[in-house]
Amino acid sequence: MGLQTLHMAIASILLIAVLLCVVLRPRGLNVAWSASVGAVIAMVLGLVPITALRTIFNDTWDASATLIALFLLSQALDAHGFFAWAALYLARIARGSGWLLYILILVLTLATAALLANDGAVLILIPIFATLLLKIYKAETLRLPFLFAAGFLADATSTLFVPSNLTNIIIVDASRLNFTTFAQWMALPTLLAAITAGCCFGVRFHRLLGKNYDTSMLEQPDAVLQDRLLFWASWAALSLLVIGYIIGSQFHLPISSIAGPIAFTMVLLVHVRQIRSARSLLLAAPWSILLYALGMFVVITAAYQAHVLSFLTIPLRAFVMPTADVVGALLSGSIVAFLSAATNNLPTTLIGVLVLHGVARPNLLAIYAMVLGVDIGPKFTAFGSLATLLWLDILRRNGIRISWLRYFYENWWITLVTLGMSFVGLVVSYVLFK
Q: What is d(CA 155, CA 280) in angstroms, rounded to the nearest whole number?
């Protein structure tokens, strides 16, 4: 057996083992440990040179740091009741209409995912929705339409802004796109994805959503706010976040350099106002995400350099070439969508980044199609994204158990239709902005 064949065999086994651990999470194993151990093995065996770590770190640090900052900001806002206030406010605006509450919950989910990322939307909103809906509807079947749709949109509409998803940041950093251009191209695809998914779930659960509720059993929104100053500071922080993204993009600043200071300022304010200690907020942050992204990229790089992934990277490279046509560009998005569903969207994103690095001037339409693919495609399966795994775990802790088979049954066709409509929106954006 030649050295190249040996490397290919080892890299294949290592990649499969790490992916299985990430997807199945045996004994609740943190995905960061799986990826980190795999990365160490890859380096010890010489599959990836130590010198490559610098490039890998450069491709992942900003995305990981931004995700941590947005998580801290989300936790700081949630600590004083900001999101609970928003949910109660919308529930009262709906005036007992199940359909109107459904629409408003989806709008809140979309806005939160856009500003605070998909994982933040799931971690903060789903527990609040679960508690709120339990007060409104005692029957679990009446709560499921809201929870399914909100969990779906948290991922599927995390395409609007660069920081809305970890995968977006990684792809954009590799492609050197800026915030405003990205938002301009993605506005229509995101809108169509939100409307399509909302309508699909509405059709699927139309009988359950028609059930009205009594608003008198709900608290007044202001009653859950713990600090009025922090309430207004939260609005200021969210506004500064968007303004900072726009200004920062003009100077090509790392996204984390915008989100980080705003997040830490809110953490300090929450600490000073004695709502929650800064230490507890910092300890709760997902610091392991940096190890996960870095370790997974090392494992993917090992497989890439050993030519294990050639069956994927060769057609992808052809579709992202500047000469690729519209159909080819959309095929790149379709490939990464189904690969994300079959494995997980982060390793798929890292494969896409390696392909983009190998093309001097990648096709712009293909880049955006890949973003849609890795953000929406994972919704086919329960293990396609970490946000979905978090969603399932939160529901389980709230007494609602959704099997992987039930998840696939409810989501596969909605994912397919939503992805297709987002591609339609992307083509329109391409015609308008190319």
A: 27
404: amino acid identity, one letter: W
Instruction: Write out pLDDT tens, residues 22-63.
Output: 878 787 778 888 889 999 999 988 888 888 888 888 888 888
Instruction: Tell me the helices (H) and strands (E) count for the chain, helix number first.
Output: 20, 0
Cα torsion for 15, 24, 174, 67, to the nearest 10°?
-140
Q: Using the Cα atoms of residue 193, residue 244, residue 57 and residue 387 in order, give the sign of their dihedral.
A: negative
CA dihedral of residues 215, 217, 220, 223 (deg, nearest 10): -160
- For 401, list phi and psi in degrees, rounded to 5: -110, 120
Residue 289: Cβ within 10 Å count: 22
Highest mean predicted confidence (pLDDT) among 357-361, 379-383, 414-418: 414-418
**Residue-level length of the chain:** 434
Count of domains observed in the chain: 1
Sign of CA dihedral 265, 253, 349, 405: positive
Q: How far apart are CA 110 and CA 116, in angstroms?
A: 10
The whole-angstrom separation of Cα 297 and Cα 289 is 12
Burial class (CB in 10 A: 0-12, 13-18, 19+), 2: exposed
- SS3 (DSSP) at 225: coil
CA-to-CA separations, 278 to 236, 267, 281, 348, in angstroms, rounded: 20, 6, 5, 35
* DSSP line for 20-57: HHHHH-GGG--HHHHHHHHHHHHHHTTSS-TTHHHHHH
191 has pLDDT over 90: yes
CA–CA distance, 400 with 145 (Å, rounded to integer): 13
Model confidence band, residue 1 (pLDDT cutoffs 50, 70, 90)? low
Query: Phi, psi (5° rounding) for residue 277?
Result: -70, 145
Q: Quick one: average pLDDT of 8-18?
A: 89
Provide the pLDDT for residue 368.
96
Dist. CA 397–CA 349, nearest whole Å: 30
Parent domain of 155: 3-433
Residue 95 gets which letter from DSSP?
T
